[in-house]
Structure formats: C-alpha cells, structure tokens
Model the fold of this input.
Amino acid sequence: MSERFFPDSMPPPMADATTLPWWNAAAEHRLVVQRCASCGHTRHPPAPICPECRSADSDWKEVSGRGDVYSYTLVHRPIAADQTLPFVVAVIELEGSGGLRMISNVVGVNPEEVEIGMPVELVWEDMSEDLAVPRFRPVTD
Amino acid sequence: MSSSACSAQIVGVGESRYTRWGKIGDVTEHALACQAIQRAVADAGLEMDDVDGLASFAEDRNEAVFLAAELGLPALRFGNMVWMPGGGGGCAAVGNAAMAVETGQAEVVVVYRSLCQGQFFRFGQAGRDLSAPVDPAPPTVQQANSLMLASLGFAMPYGLLMAAAAYALPTRRHMHLYGTTSEQLGMLAVTFREHASRNPRAVMGGRPMTLEDHQASPMIADPHRLFDCCLESDGACAVVVTSAERARDLAKPPVEILASEQGAPKGYAFGPFSNANIPDELYATGGCEEMAGRLWGKAGLRPGDVDVAQIYDHFTGCVLMQLEDYGFCQRGEGGPFIESGALSWKDGSLPTNTHGGSLSEAYIHGLNHVVEGVRSLRGESTSPVDNAEVCLVTSGACVPSSAVLLGRR
Done:
C-alpha cells in the first residue's frame, strides 16, 4: 500500500459502465485517457462517442503522469473527518495527453507554495486494495 | 428601445419571508412555495383560478403536480422543469413560461422556486455529515446511477464537492491571467451589501460590511473568503407570466420579456465543477459569452442599453466573469470595472443587484433576481434606478446558464 494523503472517509469515486474502465486502469496504477480510434482525439472524462468525429470506437492511452498546475484552490473546509486542512484541489494539464486536463490534488507540498504553472508528477494513493486515486506532487528531480 | 421579442409579459411577483438557513421555522418548503405563488398572483391582480401553468428549475423538490393540487388549480395545463443545472435555470424557467403562453399551451404560468437549506442539506456542506460514523468497509468505486454522478466521479474523490471550491478554480485562473485581486472581489460584495441595507427582505439588511470586513472573513476555498460566497437561505419566490393582451388590464404595469436565452458552450458539460476540459479560452469565464451574443442579438440591444442588472451571484468571481461575458467591459477588465464603482446603485454606470443579490438578500437560486428585475423596472426597488427601461437578469455562471432582458416602455 502506498503513502496516504487523505483519510478513508473521503468520498469514493462513482462510475458507470462508460467510466469504470478508467478506474479499473487506475487500480492497476495506470493513468489513462480515452482516445478516439477513428480520429485520435483524446477526451476526459470518458464518454461513449468522440465529440469531434462522433465515432464510438475508442481505446485507452497511458500518459506519463507529468503535468502542470492549470488552476487550483486551497480548500479550508473539511470534506471528510480527520482531514488535514487546507488541502489543494487542482486542475492538472497532462503531458502527452493531447492537451487534456484532469481534476486532482497536489500533495506533499506546503499548500501556500502551489502556483499555476508548477510542474507536477503523478503519485498513486491506494485508498484500499481495490481503489487507487491519482494525485500529484511537485516534480522532485 | 427594441420591439419586444416575446408577446408574453411578467405581471406579478411575490415571495415568502427570507431567512438564514434553518430559521424559517416550522413551515415546509412547499408551503412557502404556495405562499410565494399566492402573493405573486395577488400582486398581478389575478385569481388563483386563473393559473393553469407552473414552471421551475434546479431539481425543485416541490413538484408542480402536487402544488397544483395544494393550490386548488382548476387544471394544470403546463408543468415544466428546466434542465440547466442548479441556478442556471431561473431565467430559462421564465423563458419557458413565456413560450407556453405564446404557443397557447397555458394562459397564466407561475414560475416558482422554493429552497430551504435548513430542511434538506446546506449546499455549503455538500450534503456530507462529517459526524456520521465512518463506513468500516474499504473504499471502492461506487455505482453511479446517473450521468451527473458518473461525471462528478471525477471530482468527488479529490474532495471537490463544495461549489465554493469548484468556482474558485476559474476565478483563481482569472487572477493569474489578468491580475484580478481579492480586494476587487470584496468591493463587489460590499456594494451588494450596501444595496441590501435598504431592502427589508434582505437577510443581511442589518449587517453592514466594509472591505476590511471582507478581507478579514475566513477563507473557505481560496480565493473565496466567506463574504465572497452567497448566503444559505430558506425562502421562496414566484413570478407570473401571461399574454400581453391579458396583461393590459391587470393591477401592475406589465414588464416585457425582450429576449430569453439558455446556453451551454461546446464541451462545457457541468462546467468547472466536474469538467477540467472546458476549452482554454472559456475556462476563466462564466461560460455565458456565446449565449450573451444571442441575447443581445434577439433583443436588438447592446450592453450600453442596460439601465440596471441583476446578475447571478453565487460567488463574487462568477459575477466579475459575467460582467466580461455580457460585454459590460473587456475580457480581463472585470476587476478595474468593479473598482470604478460601476455596480453601485447610486451613481454607478451599471447598478447591479439592487436587492443585495444572493450575497446579501437571499439565496433562492437566483429567481429573486427576476423578482428584483421586475421591481426595478416598476420603480418599486428599494435601491431605485431612475427611469430604468432595460434590465438584464442572469441565472447561473460557470454552469450552463440562462438570461432574460426585461423592458418597460
């Protein structure tokens, strides 16, 4: 099990059959984006058809987990019991994803030091044996 | 002024008492809805037996079919709920009511919204009870039984559940791109509070606020301080729509609906709450620019023609970005525009939220902004704008939204 950043009582993800493959990949510590098999356009969250060419064929592309902070907020109110405050919710621009961003957290940092443009890298948090949540920390190397 | 785009008109407005969440007392949300509807119908000089349509929005818990029975309506010919999420649907519900009247589906439609955050859950707490025992089972992915929940599944595990945090994201980026400051957001909140000071309905009417108070208020979700966030309220309000022909003989001067629009730009989905991939050029905006263009075009008006505005104010930054979306200032200049005093009732170029808004009157999902829009054109506002002929009312921002342009000759 990985290093822990958030308590067990954080809200779990909810998924349907369209979005579940993304969470299944996460459980294997693979950060993926959905890619249109017809035109190559990537999309997130997963969706049934490509919004550009409307093809229903898609596959999954693994990304490096490197990225930049696109925007962020320091949340000073707890979402879960026993949570460390403030915590950082951020929009991360994902390298090699075709320009996609995802909502996540920046962890392992003094929240006051987070800024737009900060380079970050993926860190998996295993919330349980079946659930891994991708979070990000400042690039260390 | 342009010719009216809609033949339907607004003829009555009303509301219940507004209180802080949980303070309305032993009265249900639907009882408040009935009260607001009765008062709006009476304001119009109509009888309850004249009403044959009901319209609402924002997953209203008080279904039209039950209200129609409680109110003793002779027949419910039109029952309608808007699909723009949350507060994005208020003006759209007015537009739908007008559409029903114009197409002969109903003659008198009442738009209503009742919201008791003290009786269900406080939006600011996102429905989470942190004192409840923690589920001992290891966390796993849960089944999403709606498209909305599957989408929010990409926000919730990161703790993004509060609107204050969700809309902090575009506001923070706006600050980064354009140098917008917390003080500029604070000036907006102070201006609306000052407007509320004359409004006996305003929950915060007796609570003056200075910029220092704003800057000293606790941080909720940076850059949103407590006083950047709307109130959590109990209350209900209602707006009566009927045909221009019928409006002629009623109690109050009718208010025209010059244009009504709904809008969600391409790829917007639920906005920044669950969607990190709003196109870059739209991210640090209210997402209303495309719709605003259609609104102005339909009415044949420009931003400079607006005498008074009631702008949806769930959070200060969302108002600032709407000012840019609707063209009252250039993109990125919302901060200096606020700093110039433009939004002030007394001498501003764009008197805005003359009732105090959701920041200081009450949070009734913004339908109270339509009510104030009507009053401001009737000369009934407690912060009156002389000879006002055109009022912009907006519903929602940073979500799929709607807006109306109201007019009075």
Observations:
- Chain A touches chain B through 51 residues (CB under 8 Å).
